[in-house]
Known about the structure:
By secondary structure, the protein is an alpha/beta fold. It has one domain (about 1-210): Aldolase class I (TIM Barrel, Alpha-Beta Barrel), CATH 3.20.20. It is built from 11 helices and 8 strands. It has helices at about 10-15, 30-35, 40-50, 65-75, 90-100, 110-120, 130-135, 140-155, 170-175, 185-190, 195-210, and strands spanning about 1-5, 25, 55, 80-85, 105-110, 125-130, 160, 180-185. It has an 8-stranded parallel barrel with strand order 1-2-3-4-5-6-7-8, surrounded by 6 helices. Strand 7, helix 9 and strand 8 (about 180-185) form a beta-alpha-beta unit. It starts with a strand and ends in a 5-residue tail after the last helix. The structure holds erythose-4-phosphate (E4P). Erythose-4-phosphate (E4P) binds near residues 28, 107, 129, 163 and 164.
Amino acid sequence: MKFxxxxxxxxxxxxxAATGLVDGVTTxxxxxxxxxxxxxxxxxxxxxxxxxxxxAEVTALDSVAMIEEGRKLAKIAKNIAVKVPLTWDGLRACKxxxxxxxxxxxxxxxxxxxxxxAAKAGASFISPFIGRLDDINLDGxxxxxxxxxIYDNYDFPTExxxxxxxxxxxxxxxxxxxxxxxxxxPGVLRGLANHPLTDKGLELFLADWKKTGQKIL
Length: 217
Ligand code: E4P
């Protein structure tokens, strides 16, 4: 499973990218707004830090303007994935941009039929929003499972990018049902390495090691 970081905070991205475990980045207009910075500059900076796909979202609503915005964003760097919403205009824009060789991430996916359309439109990534479905008492993970089955039935190359992840459990479940990518907020990503028994075990090992009076270096 690939890990993308779901943030536009460059300090967080630099810090996590240094672990070598970050395969890409996703941003959205809300995450960019949180930084208070210029959109294009932030995306340029992220692309200079992370070699994998960096999602940058269009904000136009009609396909013609989305395509123009997408072309501008795609020029920022080779690893840009233009993010378009799952609307008919977004699907038209996806088809056009994908036809020009641009990676497209179709976002705001909440149903398997929407995901089927995105794959047919040539999307590189489909972003089903797990957390937002769970918020309204629907099952986000069931959606990932359904999309996995449909994509496998027809050998669609579109990657399933589990989005709106809120917890470590979401990451585990998405991996179990076969999502290709999880885009994870920095705090959740850091938390994946934590376990109280790891901390306790390490403390005991080090206490016993100290008693030996030895050093490795
Ligand atoms: C995905 O690309 C989105 O940026 C993100 O995962 C949305 O998550 P949220 O529902 O926590 O805002």
